[in-house]
Amino acid sequence: MDAFLLVIFIIVGLAGLIFQVDAGAFVGLSLAPWQIIKLDIGKKISLYAIILSTLIGGIYFIAISRWLLFLLFLLIEVYNYWGYRKRYQK
C-alpha cells in the first residue's frame, strides 16, 4: 500500500507543479518523502527525497509568493526529517 501511495503522491505533486495547483504540489511534495521513509528503501534515498522535495516545493511556493503555504510546507518537511532521524539515526 505504501508503494501505491508513493506513486499517487508523486503523480499528484508533479501534476500540481505542471498545472500550478497549489494543493496538489503541497500534498504531493510533502507526503512523497514520508512514503519513501516508510518503505525503508535506504538512508541516502530517503534523505535525498526530503532534500529534493524541500528544494522543489520551496522554490515553487516562493516563486508564486504563497508564504503561508511555504511555511507550512517547511514545517511538514521538518516533520519528514524527524521521521528520517527516528528511523535511521539510532
Could you walk me through the main structural features you see in this protein, from its secondary elements to its overall organization?
With 90 residues, the chain is mainly alpha-helical. It is 87% helix and 0% strand. It has helices at residues 2-18, 22-39, 43-63, 67-88. Helix 1 runs antiparallel to helix 2, helix 2 (22-39) runs parallel beside helix 4 and helix 3 (43-63) packs antiparallel against helix 4. It is globular and about 40 Å long. The termini are far apart.
Task: Quickly list its features.
single chain; 90 residues; mainly alpha; 87% helix; globular
Produce a short descriptive summary.
With 90 residues, the chain is mainly alpha-helical. It is built from 4 helices and no strands.
SSE topology:
Layout: H1 2-18, H2 22-39, H3 43-63, H4 67-88
Helix pairs in contact: 1-2, 2-3, 2-4, 3-4
Unreliable runs: none
User: What percent of residues are in strands?
Assistant: under 5%
The ordered H/E elements are: HHHH
> Mean of residue pLDDT?
96
Which range best describes the helical content: under 10%, 10-25%, 25-40%, 40-55%, 55-70% or over 70%? over 70%
Distance between the termini: 26 Å
Sheet with the most strands? none
Question: Rg from C-alpha positions?
Answer: 13 Å
| SS summary, helix count | 4
Shape: globular
Structural class: mainly alpha
Number of strands: 0
